[in-house]
Design a protein that fits this description.
The complex is a heterodimer. By secondary structure, chain A is of the alpha/beta class. Chain A is built from 15 helices and 12 strands. In chain A, the strands form 2 sheets. In chain A, strands 2-8-7-6-5-3-4 form a 7-stranded mixed sheet, with helices on both faces. In chain A, strands 1-11-12-10-9 form a 5-stranded mixed sheet. Chain B contains 10 helices and 19 strands.
């Protein structure tokens, strides 16, 4: 048996990295925390599941098809979405979840010495991908829980390549209305790529909420991200996409990994497009449970913040990571927000009513027993 | 500015004919990295002891790599072997240079340890096996300072200070706080500036609308999974927890997306806001002859995924109690020695921290002589005047946990579990009074 000389084989910069360890599968967590059920209120998944058409595709997927490679560039999906949004199919690129699309864009436009700009308290993956790829992530503090347009514009320099705007923002739920987004794009004036991440757009009902797809013709430097993981309940299949002008997307396509989206995900997503009933039912559910949750948290004396999207933020008088462990021991999994730079806040996804009740009960018990804390 | 990445490397055999080269290497590179004459000579003396010792222990010549690293406020000399194909007993603090030499004071590693500020024995798949010696630069001590006009603490903004503000921050801490609530590094403003420049220390301060410093916090990484922070130090009225809370929140936000899993605080002040940290336990340290309780406060920066830990029956109750108290999900796997073949010789690592009169022992190799070997380590360290001796095991290694009877027989009792410090949690033992 040989001893592998890792100290010689591993580059210095890799030695400094720690691998990101995602949470364990539910059965493992349930075994560790000694619970017989686990409500997942941490990932903003759709409690109603996928639309009926998608569910049917999944149920009827012939096992033999698993041995066949899928379309390498999600051909039928791009054609159908292009029709829906009045775009050319070549303006759309699919990825194994929208996270992969973030990496495509950063790889396409950034080189050593470049930077990206985003908010300090938003979806972490823009910052992570930039940092792990060796690019500077300039973080602009949120203003009143929202993206600060002037602050972002003020950080642009000649090495800025991409500005990421999460609209509505995860986790605060704030959004830029159409007028504000247009003003921002006009000020950027095409000099940088502006990414508008619309992962939660289908949850927003406000009239002044912009549809970035409709702005693509006017702003060739605009790229928008969408996903089937949230409203369309296909998170487990990992499928998302980006859209932009042909010239910009032509460049992004050079860095994308073909065949990374599996066949079942493509077919299930295809069946989800245009299912407006599913969107209406989900919105109705989210609105009702969000109202219930906010009222119950107020009864507990907990400060909350909720905007658009299928989640609510709550500020706790104790460490969020401690409350995570305490709630896990009661079969409820929430998202701690230290990682979002909101220490002692948690984000709670809207789930089924029984899960919401269990969360409220568990949090109430936890807050009344604070002996373990300082 | 000196380039921290520019290590200086010398590869030689463990043969005394290379000694002049080793001495010249150490002395010259120490000076290049900014050590004053006295400090450079001390590190050179340590390298002489170490090299002679390794030559004596390895028998025939083995390749050894000496690396001098520039830590800005210190020079680090590392002796590393890629493969150990000789008796690993050489890496025991208690190993004699030759069997003929008697007396605890003549042990090679111990002599080397006296000339430096920190010494550690390592054995790691990534780092190889060896010993490092650290000699810090000498800095002038802080002149405490207290502003006549206290800032009002309103309209605070948080950020890293420039060099002069950083020195003022250090002076203000000394002017307002008892030395037991800040680490010794903070008694030397120049050292803190160098530590920040090296990336080892982080500092952020709170500034009011008029640009006056209202307080600050410092932190450093103590491994890939843990950041240790100090403070908050508040320069407005005592007990202003709102300023303290702003500082703690700003600090956590700064490190939240780092690789660290845990944030520790061993130097809390009265301004530490409630609700941000959990208390893991207390260890009594003896400093300058005085016994003082040190609280170990921590919070996790990530969601706890739970993990598997190994435990000998003797420490299982302690672990269960601690894990229950802190809601830490752990699968405890029982282990014990069941007559299997053992290597004849054990090796214990020793990490010296002279400023705290502290040595942390940890297992590096398992061996049948572990009980006697550990007893000898304790004897040597006590004879050396070390007042604080801790023993640390990684509960992610079954063979560490299996050592419990050895540890217990040498007078240690389990004291504190710190999550995710190694492969799994670390368990610290303290010596029974």
């Amino acid at each position: 048996m040989f001893d592998v000389p890792l100290n010689k084989l591993v580059p210095e910069y890799i030695k400094k990295f720690e691998a990101y360890i995602p949470s364990r599968p539910d059965p493992e967590l349930m075994r560790l925390y000694k619970v017989d059920h686990l409500w997942r209120l941490n990932n903003n998944e759709n409690p109603l599941g996928p639309p009926e058409g998608s569910a049917r595709v999944i149920a009827e997927f012939p096992p033999k098809r698993a041995s066949i490679y899928p379309s390498g560039d999600s051909w039928y999906l791009r054609v159908k979405l292009a029709e829906k949004f009045d775009l050319d199919p070549d303006q759309i690129v699919f990825g194994n979840g929208a996270n992969e699309a973030i990496a495509f864009v950063i790889k396409a436009f950034c080189q050593e010495g470049d930077n990206i700009i985003t908010a300090d308290k938003t979806f972490a993956v823009y910052e992570w991908v930039a940092a792990f790829s060796g690019f500077e992530a300039r973080l602009v503090p949120l203003k009143d829980f929202g993206f600060d347009d002037e602050g972002m514009l003020g950080r642009i320099d000649e090495r800025t390549k991409i500005l990421f705007v999460c609209n509505p923002n995860n986790p605060t739920g704030t959004y830029w209305d159409e007028a504000r987004l247009r003003r921002f794009l006009d000020r950027v004036a095409g000099r940088q790529i502006v990414v508008v991440d619309e992962a939660y757009c289908e949850f927003v009902e406000a009239d002044d909420y912009p549809d970035a797809m409709k702005l693509l013709k006017e702003y060739p430097n605009l790229v928008t991200f969408r996903t089937f993981s949230k409203m369309y309940g296909l998170a487990g299949l990992r499928i998302g996409y980006l859209a932009g002008s042909r010239d910009v997307v032509d460049v992004i396509r050079r860095t994308c990994i073909v065949y990374s989206v599996n066949g079942l995900a493509q077919e299930a997503a295809l069946a989800a497009i245009g299912d407006d009933d599913h969107v209406v039912r989900t919105r109705r559910h989210v609105n009702a449970e969000k109202a219930y949750l906010l009222e119950e948290l107020a009864n507990l004396g907990v400060e909350t913040h909720a905007g658009e999207g299928c989640y609510v933020m709550a500020r706790l008088p104790v460490s969020d990571t401690l409350v995570y462990r305490q709630l896990m021991a009661k079969g409820v999994m929430i998202r701690t927000m230290t990682g979002f730079r909101f220490p002692n806040w948690i984000r709670v996804s809207i789930g089924v009513h029984e899960a919401m009740e269990d969360f409220v009960r568990g949090l109430g018990e936890t807050l009344s027993d604070r002996e373990a804390t300082l | 500015m000196q380039d921290r990445k520019a290590d200086i490397v010398l590869s030689v055999g463990t043969d005394m004919k290379f000694l002049p080269l080793v001495l010249s290497f150490t002395e010259s590179s120490s000076r290049i990295f900014g050590l004053e004459d006295r400090d450079a000579l001390k590190l050179t003396l340590a390298s002489e002891e170490m090299f002679a010792y390794l030559c004596g222990m390895t028998g025939e010549a083995r390749p050894v790599t000496l690396t001098m690293k520039n830590g800005f406020y210190y020079a680090l000399l590392r002796f590393a072997f890629d493969n150990i194909d000789f008796d690993p007993r050489a890496f025991n603090l208690t190993a004699n240079v030759s069997p003929d030499e008697e007396g605890l004071g003549e042990m090679g590693l111990l002599i080397a340890s006296r000339s430096v500020d920190r010494m550690s024995i390592f054995h790691d798949p990534l780092e190889g096996t060896g010993i490092y010696l650290i000699k810090e630069k000498t800095y002038p001590e802080v002149e405490p300072w207290k502003s006549e006009e206290a800032p009002d603490g309103e309209g605070l903004s948080y950020g890293p200070p420039d060099v002069e503000d950083l020195k003022m921050f250090v002076r203000s801490i000394a002017g307002r706080y008892d030395p037991f609530v800040y680490p010794q590094d903070l008694r030397y403003p120049g050292k803190v500036v160098d530590m920040v420049a090296s990336g080892e220390y982080g500092v952020l301060t709170a500034t009011d609308r008029k640009g006056r410093m209202a307080g600050g916090m410092t932190w450093r990484s103590t491994g890939t999974s843990t950041i240790e922070c100090y403070g908050p130090y508040v320069f407005v009225e005592k007990g202003r927890q709102d300023v303290g809370e702003g500082l703690v929140a700003a600090l956590i936000s700064t490190v939240a997306r780092s690789e660290a899993i845990c944030l520790m605080n061993r130097y809390p002040t009265a301004e530490l806001p409630p609700g941000y940290f959990e208390k893991l336990g207390t260890i009594d340290f003896v400093l300058k002859g005085e016994r003082r309780p040190w609280d170990f406060l921590f919070r996790e920066l990530k969601e706890d995924p739970g993990c598997r830990v190994y435990a000998h029956a003797g420490m299982e109750d302690f672990l269960k109690t601690r894990y229950k108290r802190h809601f830490l999900a752990r699968e405890i796997v029982p282990v014990k020695y069941e007559g299997e073949r053992q290597n004849p010789h054990s090796v214990f690592g020793a990490r010296f921290q002279h400023s705290q009169n502290l040595v942390v022992l940890s297992p590096l190799w398992d061996g049948a002589d572990a009980r006697e070997n550990l007893a000898r380590h304790i004897e040597v360290l006590k004879a050396e005047g070390i007042a604080n001796i801790l023993f640390r095991i990684d509960l992610g290694h079954g063979w560490h946990a299996r050592l419990y009877p050895v540890i217990e027989a040498n007078g240690f009792v389990p004291s504190i579990v710190i999550p995710y410090q190694g492969k799994a949690d670390w368990l610290f033992f303290t010596l029974r009074d």
